Amino acid sequence: MATKHEQILNFIESLKVGNKISVRQIAKELNVSEGTAYRAIKEAENQGLVSTIERVGTIRIERKKKENFEHLTFAEIVSIVDGQVLGGREGLYKTLNKFVIGAMKLDAMMRYTEKDSLLIVGNRVEAHELAIKEGAAVLITGGFDTEDQVKRLADEKKLPIISTSYDTFTVAAMINRAIYDQLIKKEIVLIGDIFIPYDHTFFLTTKDQLTKWYEFNEQTTHSRYPVVDENNRVVGMVTSKDIIGKDKLVSIDKVMTKNPMTVLKETSLAYAAHMMVWEGIEIMPVVDNHNKLVGLISRQDVLKALQHIQRQPQVGETIDDIVTSRLEVLSDDNQNMVFRSDVTPQMTNQLGTLSYGVLVSFVTEAGGRVLRQYKKGDLVVENLSVYFLKPVQLESVLEIKSRILEVGRKSAKVDVEVFHDKDLVGKAVLMGQLIDR
Fold first, then answer.
1. Quick check: 316 pLDDT over 80?
2. Which residues form the CBS domain (predicted)?
3. In Å, what is the CA distance from 208 to each residue of 197, 213, 223?
């Protein structure tokens, strides 16, 4: 039987998109406490079922499709620009495809305004009305209002009219920034993007006998299965190692390994890959916030996804990419390496000098390279002490000397010095674990 929390989530999901909900309404309709209703609404917000907007309330929204991840809903626009909704509240869940800045004559403005777009314009009531008729939402800048007839038309067409106190340029910059942030997030692959869902997953329960493991093994040729309790919570994992020498009629909960490592759908692929490789885990259960099984992820799936990402075109270079591509090897004598790099505009702070973050990237990359050369392994930095002794100007040429201080079977310590015109400008000591390549 579903818990009260699950019943509320199912009820919210059944509501029509655009419906307004409240804690008091949910508590009254489903006969639950307001605390239970509040927690369920927050969970629904995390799942993308509802959105809470200041001065509007909480409304049922449409879950975004992955391919439209970079697009924003009008509800999100309200939050981004600290806006006030003047009309068309029922359309807040809709997604905008593009925005148009209304800084031109009316007829020219309408040529660019199309269905599901957003017209950003000042105190021009005629433009507000024409945009709504064309199927576009309107964002009025400068804190201006619009006429009642336009608000009624917006309600009828279910297209939001939003007012913000910011000017047009600032609003456009804020929306652009939000879209860019969404694109960056899109580049970060999560477990939820690649995991095997629950309905395609083989799992055991604590009440099953070991014979069930053998049935699954024969059917799937896999040897590892998660174990769940009566509430579908993950409580263990059974592998071929656990069943050696055990009677086939023994209960699964007597042979399973308890408290296995799990991941959430929101866990990044990179983190899961690190954990699975580092701990030697071949399969990991994917759970929700209540530790209930929602699917599985295998090491093979993770590695395939990482290889796929490496072949994809990226939105842009990261600082680490820029640093790596700029480092040129000057000399190499096994335990000591010397590099050279120039300081480009992307590496500077607002003062035009080398930023602290870029210096850290330089010393980390230089330290990692000398270890790869000497030990044929990668360094996972656990401790980093960096001293920035002098500012470095734009277009300066740096000389970076990397020297191994200590190296063991699983750990290493590296000293890195950064020079400009023979002056020591930065120094660092890196300590960390070695991973064989």
1. no
2. 195-254, 256-314
3. 22, 9, 16
By CB neighbour count within 10 A (0-12 exposed, 13-18 middle, 19+ buried), where does 265 fall? middle
Residues 102, 90: Cα–Cα separation, whole Å: 24
CATH architecture group of domain 4-59: Orthogonal Bundle (1.10)
The per-residue DSSP string of 15-79 comes to SPTT-EE-HHHHHHHHT--HHHHHHHHHHHHHTTSEEEETTTEEEE-PPPPGGGTTS-BHHHHHH
Which CATH code fits 192-309? 3.10.580.10
> Are 121 and 138 within 8 A, CB to CB?
yes
Is residue 221 pLDDT above 60, yes or no?
yes
Cα distance between residue 341 and residue 425, in whole Å? 14
Strands 196-197 and 263-264: unpaired
Spatial contact of 362 and 324, defined as CB atoms under 8 Å apart = no
What pLDDT, in 10s, does the model give residues 356-367? Answer: 889 999 999 998
pTM: 0.40
Q: Residues near 391 by Cβ (< 8 Å), separated by ≥ 6?
A: 351, 353, 354, 425
* Whether domain 66-187 has CATH 3.90.1480.10: no
Burial class (CB in 10 A: 0-12, 13-18, 19+), 137: buried
Instruction: Outline where DSSP puts E strands in 150-287.
Output: 161-163, 196-197, 204-205, 225-228, 234-238, 257-258, 263-264, 283-287
pLDDT digits (tens, 9 = 90+) for 248-270: 899 999 999 998 989 998 887 87
